[in-house]
Amino acid sequence: MRMTTSDPSNADLPIGVFDSGVGGLTVLRALRAQLPNESTIYLGDSARVPYGTKSTDFLVGQGVKLLVIACNTASALAIDQLAARHNPLPVVGVVEPGAAAAVAATRGHRHLVLATESTVRHHAYARAIRALDPSADVQEVGCSLLVALAEEGWTEGAIAESIARKYVEPALGATGRTAPDSVVLGCTHFPLLEGPIRAAVGAGPVIVDSATTTAEHVGRLLEASGARRQSTSPPAHRLIATDGPARFAALGSRFLAEHVDEADVEIVDL
Ligand code: DGL
Fold it and tell me: How much is the pTM?
């Protein structure tokens, strides 16, 4: 796994977190929970979906010590270009930590990855898992409707469960296959749907959440580089969007699992 170092003299700078919308707030939530003394700047560039280099240029220009690409699709499509563009700043995507956690979570070799169509088309998870376990059997399923369900807030009950079942049942029932050992939530929106996904896949598989595993990876990286924030003053958190502060605040409150006030969302025109 990519493991660049963060400069210890930048230890008090915030962690930059980029997403193409609100989904990356699940990654921000995990970062804040695991690294409570770190400051953060989150940019949800919903006006420029997806993956603009401009957005990460803006974040880096704010002064950050590490950049998290908190979107599976952007990580799948652009992590190498973004890492090269911002070198020597450490750039962490969500795919590699999620893949590593799936391999580490089970002694079995069968993994079911639930992601967006774009992430599936790029086979980013299959490649990252097989790089660590060449004998892995990886099935990737594009689950676009789950993104919509998470944004609508329909994250439990009969509708969410039957849609989750519709996506996973063909994968579970494919000829010659048995239940997977791990189910990877390969989209930032899917931790909100863990309940219906668990109901659909049954009790057997380990569910791996790439938001949590990415936050753990960032913690290890900062620790190894001596770049954890030292200041004892409270950390600062900025939320920035490129349009729609009301929608960002409403959805953001659910994705971040804490109240986001519209007035707390800075709007920038990139
Ligand atoms: N943030 C994206 C991801 O993790 C999902 C949302 C979207 O594509 O609109 O893949």
Answer: 0.93
